[in-house]
């Protein structure tokens, strides 16, 4: 849930895994792994003129009320595969939040387990924290506000926006700037091309055209309702 008045333009995820042994004794050569999950959502405001981002607050959620136990033999060479399978079952409850982080979490967990596991160790606790940073870009907001103040401004039709051509990484110059947010188009972001051939970040030009049917660069007119 976003703070009141917060508009998310970008979202970045990072997973942090910590592994701690649980003091216990066992004569069996098995390791019991307990998993606990939490999500920390942080909200940032990107100010204009390249000033530092401002932190707007955070929300912490505990995703599971009890641990998930995974039992493995200490000499098991299939540890990675078993962890991956077990986490697939766990993430069914939190698919939207964790699904794209599963590979990273399994990799971190496997590496840390292998570095601390001993024959005397019978239980460990793995805490997984997913940090989601949401960014509200004031440059986009300012551009939209400026476009909406022009007399006679009419949004482009939804159908014309949906038909905009997506550009693959090899079809664009990643060093070119998006004239809406003034950042480079880059290779990892989604880019759309208008019929006039000008290219913009997909999210930027979509928000722009929902307020104005003109191309921000050449004033080409998109269809309206």
TrEMBL record:
- Give a yes or no for keyword Zinc-finger in this entry: yes
Q: What does the UniProt keyword field contain?
A: Metal-binding, Zinc, Zinc-finger
Do you know which SMART domains this protein is assigned to? RING (SM00184), RINGv (SM00744)
Q: What is its EC number?
A: 2.3.2.27
User: Which InterPro entries does the protein's record reference?
Assistant: Znf_RING (IPR001841), Znf_RING-CH (IPR011016), Znf_RING/FYVE/PHD (IPR013083)
Gene Ontology terms: biological process: protein ubiquitination
Q: Which Gene3D superfamilies match?
A: Zinc/RING finger domain, C3HC4 (zinc finger) (3.30.40.10)
One GO cellular component term of this record is: cytoplasm
SUPFAM superfamilies cross-referenced by the UniProt entry: RING/U-box (SSF57850)
The RING-type domain, residue ranges: 178-219
- Write one Pfam family the protein is assigned to: zf-RING_2
User: Which GO terms of the molecular function aspect are on file?
Assistant: ubiquitin protein ligase activity; zinc ion binding
Q: What name appears for this protein in its UniProt entry?
A: RING-type E3 ubiquitin transferase
Species whose genome carries this gene: Solanum verrucosum
